[in-house]
Write a structure and sequence with these properties.
It contains eight helices and 17 strands. The protein has helices spanning 13-21, 48-55, 69-77, 94-97, 120-126, 162-186, 218-227, 296-302; strands at residues 2-7, 26-31, 36-38, 43-45, 60-61, 82-86, 104-108, 116-117, 131-138, 148-155, 201-202, 234-240, 243-255, 264-266, 273-275, 280-288, 294-295. The longest helix has 25 residues, at 162-186. 38% of the residues are buried.
């Protein structure tokens, strides 16, 4: 089949590679986002999928609006059999979705209808789920609500965080995608509508989600640290000679403890032990503002804290 791949984020790499490795299919184009200004200097930077697609010598399209007349004309000329969408980042109108003869399909990294919307990986971790998964579905006008072609469960290990779980889901998604493509090719798809009564939606992450609220239970705080490690990160403020300094927390461990939320219970060993709403957490990996990542013990050597001091 002639396939057009729509994607922008690195989660799409294994799926694009799987399509390229198929002897029965041809990726005739990759549709991705235009270069965007990044960093303090606002340097125009290509998204991850564009960089990889160009390296592989693929035909790359970067419409500012995928539904524009110019974009629609370019996509029609490709005479595609199937569109595959993975974390593309733009709304795709029906006029585009209806172009390929076999429709448009999407990978979503959750067990739909649970966690429709953005950041499903992060919210599964933040909510303490022990199982998540991937879904291949037909793209519909309403986000993530199309008929389901295939699903696969993926366990969430206690040591998993967003940066380790995403590639596992991407690889599972690549395998499932090729099963779905083969079903589409052979005409054996038995897609099932989603149960709207069981649908849940998750919002896009905001910077404010990263602030650590010490009144929350230890398990909740630990799950948030795991979930938001890539962005926005989890932060608190610690007392220093000049006042308060922001501290990013990358890894923590739930431990027994009792005290007023935010108060340091122990300032020795592997890192500061902080009392929270229910129990305590030890900060095992941190990053002071303007400094490199360090383990909690190294942080205490450079930034001594006293038991009884309070974190913001």
């Amino acid at each position: 089949m002639r396939i057009v791949f729509f994607g922008s984020a690195s989660i799409g790499f294994p799926l694009l590679d799987a399509l390229l490795a198929s002897s029965a299919d041809e990726v005739v184009a990759v549709v991705t986002q235009p270069d965007r200004p990044v960093g303090r200097k606002l340097k125009l930077t290509a998204c991850p999928v564009k960089e990889v697609a160009l390296q592989k010598g693929l035909n790359v399209l970067c419409p500012e609006k995928v539904g524009s007349d110019e974009s629609l004309t370019s996509l029609k000329e490709l005479k595609a059999d199937l569109f595959v969408v993975v974390a593309y980042g733009q709304y795709i109108p029906p006029a585009v979705l209806d172009l390929p003869t076999n429709g448009s399909i999407n990978l979503h990294p959750s067990l739909l209808p649970k966690y429709r919307g953005s950041s499903p990986i992060q919210w599964a971790l933040a909510n303490g789920d022990e199982v998540t998964g991937v879904t291949i579905l037909y793209v519909s006008e309403k986000m993530d609500s199309g008929d389901i072609i295939l699903q696969r469960e993926v366990p969430i290990r206690p040591e998993d965080h967003a940066a380790t779980l995403e590639p596992v889901l991407a690889q599972a998604g690549a395998e499932l995608l090729m099963e779905a493509v083969e079903q589409i090719r052979s005409g054996t798809v038995k897609a099932q509508p989603q149960d709207e009564a069981a649908a849940t939606a998750v919002r896009k992450l905001a910077k404010e989600d990263g602030w650590l609220d010490w009144s929350l239970p230890a398990s909740v705080l630990n799950n948030r640290i795991r979930a938001f490690i890539a962005w926005p990160g989890c932060f608190c403020e610690v007392p220093v000679r000049s006042g308060m300094q922001r501290l990013k927390v990358l890894e923590a461990r739930v431990e027994p403890g009792n005290g007023e939320p935010g108060v340091i219970l122990d300032a020795s060993g592997e890192g500061p032990l902080v009392a929270v709403g229910d129990g305590a957490i030890r900060l095992l990996s941190v990053q002071p503002a303007g400094k490199n990542i360090m383990d909690g013990a190294a942080y205490l050597r450079g930034y001594p804290l006293e038991p009884g001091s309070r974190l913001g």
